[in-house]
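Batch 3, record 17
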Amino acid sequence: MAVPKLEQLSKSVVQGPSLATGAIPTKDWMDIPVHFHEGNYAYPAKKEKVEYLNSQKGLFFPNAREWSPEDDDWKLPENWKEIILNGLKERLDKFRSLKIFMDCCVRCGACADKCHFFLGTGDPKNMPVLRAELLRSVYRNDFTLAGKILGRMAGAREMTVGVLKEWFMYSYQCTECRRCSVFCPYGIDTAEVTMMLRELLHLVGVGINWILEPASNSNRTGNHMGLQPHTFKDNVDFLTDDIENLTGIRITPTFNRKGAEVLFITPSADVFAEPGLYTAMGYLLLFEAIGLDYTWSTYASEGGNFGLFTNNETMKKLNAKMYAEAKRLGVKWILGGECGHMWRVLHQYMDTMNGPADFLEIPKSPITGTVFDNAASTKMVHISEFTADLIKNGKLKLDKSRNSHVKATFHDSCNTSRAMGLLDEPRYILDHVVDWVEMPENTIREQTFCCGSGTGLNTDEIMELRMRSGLPRANAVKYVHEKHDVNMLSCVCAIDRATLTSLMNYWNPDVRVCGVTELVGNALVLEGETRGELDDGLRTML
Amino acid sequence: MKYAFSFLAVIALILIAGVGSQIAGMPYFFGVFVPYVAIAVFLVGFVYRVVQWAKSPVPFSIQTTCGQGKSLEFIKHNRLEAPDTTAEVVARMLLEIFTFRSLFRNTKSEIYDGPKITYESSKWLWLFGIVFHYSFLIVVIRHMRLFLNPVPEVVAFLDWADSMFEIGTPSMYMTTAGLIAGAALLFSRRLVNRHVRYISLANDYFPLVLIFAIGVTGALMRHFLRDGIDIVAIKQLAVGLVTFHPVIDGEIGAIFYIHVFLVASLLVYFPFSKLMHLGGVFLSPTRNMKNNSRAVRHTNPWNPDIKPHSYAGYEDEFREFMVDAGIPVEKELPAQKDEA
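Prediction for the assembled complex:
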């Protein structure tokens, strides 16, 4: 699907029929059916990927088939409605959050214009409150007294194929960024609602390929890119060649090495594609500079977790590799690279799902002696925490002038900010390695805007949607680009590095995207280096 | 026309009580039976709903952090927005419940040509909400003077403070005005704000209209329709209800029964509606959990037994490549059979 020209889309987001800018639909939302056409949906999961996942122990992905959202008949199982309603009942009994969030919303509208999808599309069903009402209306109809008696008068409606299609449309126009939950007076978290919708849809075989293929790759090869062990190693080795060319330093990282002190896990995209590659070079340089005794793993070679975008069983299964590998290799603790949703899983789910990790030790920096008490149970430390501590203790020799070609700003990832509270560690690092400025206050920290393509939505066939939903973020970058000549958008997230690059190319082509550790790598002064003038840091072409 | 329906429903309730209470023998129905049933439904219903919520576990630690989490010593921890201890959680919850802190954050976004998106602070909803809820709370506490004998000092003090401006005779309560104005403002907001108008259901308008009518009938009784309002008889009935010896002595005007019937309707409606946010706000996992999930393990009672795709299975599939690439393996390749 071709993406509209910049001028076209710029006009459309302001003047198009949009509730965000003033047009109120004349029909009640329950009377507006969804319409699928090329460009407004992500492609359904391939049959063989669904079959593979369904064959894995502990996972349940039924009804593998060829189908298209554009077809009238989605080839649902005959008893699909029963499956959905039973699935909903089961989840109401398993998740208090779901019950509370179904019952407590007063429709005050505080969340309405907080959603980047709503701001970019103006579609009323992208207001978080209405996204939740898509499910809440069915919940009322089948699980509440008021809904059973009063029906539509009480906002209830029957579960139909039309409703199911609506769920598919709008649970894949939410990136589970949780910005709405910051503003909700009851903390209602649309991410929970979206997760439940997606879980329910998987029960009848409705899912998208851009999530299920990476999930099955992660299961089989250890990483979502599907890199096999030798390829993964080759990719890292290429980076060490580049580093040698640039700095004269030869780094020889190890893989699957037993007895290393630390296991390092980062999103596989960092060793696979630009601009993540430069972030990975930053990791390699950093660990070399401090002489860290660490190993990569090819088996647990994915930090990201596509299970988070699928269902809690898949999340658990994919995440379980980290502890399994840490145990097998006999490391003391785990260090995690820059990634947003990966860190939501590590901070809020991993220990619960796959702990207790009593075979590991409380993380202690071998360089500074700092004990990371905040990770005492999970035993996994964020690279920004680790690096900030190194800087604070004067263990890194940094030359800020090596980043003089960069004027940076910082994008908080949804998950690290709102599901972890990691806000000031990356800022502390930036203060020491680069000249940088903040974006406007309603777009940063806990109020940060999503890149627009998280939770497995960074697929090309929905590029227009992505450019729309990324608009609030892009707009804030544009502001600092124009006001402060910002030319680099730094972040601590691998999905961001991929998606913000597309977003910047579209809305702000003069701004590039990088990981914070790339800027650290740029500024690091290593012993024995023979580094010339690198006028573009680690990106310099020699 | 969802709001019109709400008006009709409330008018119907008013008519039922207004006309019904004038039929001989019916004052006991409206003055005794209905209040008892309403209180019973409210209490049982409220507890039932909270128990139903509490029966579902909280499988994962899903706090929403709205500030810096506890981390390194030199990184300033935001104890209210990313609480690490129970005391910090309690502080966060108290501020949420008593000051509507999240609503205070509210912003309004606008999209201009360019495109250019702006966000500005918007505290109207917070203000309306605070006026409405606090007025309602004080009105409820004030009413205790009718049910308790002697009147506790706190209630007497509130009564005095609430009417300290001595406007009119008997002097007007500020919170009566606050409750009526709050309900009216929240209702108007539902009609004026385009986002909220589009999402509002009949069950959003109905409680506002009902509470508005409760406030108005209360004010009418105190200030305007005083004929037949025998305050001694009302107090006797109220105290009688509490002590389970209800007596209706003498004539009490229809407006009283209307007021009571509307309140009873609200009580009955309460547990089956969104008004349960009163209880739910305490139980919301994104707000009432500690952000210490990496320091202390949270347990899930139904944690399924799911193992990862095993390392052994992985190595079996890729062993040859791994050996070729010099990656350590657990099991070496089988020795090549010497053909010669």
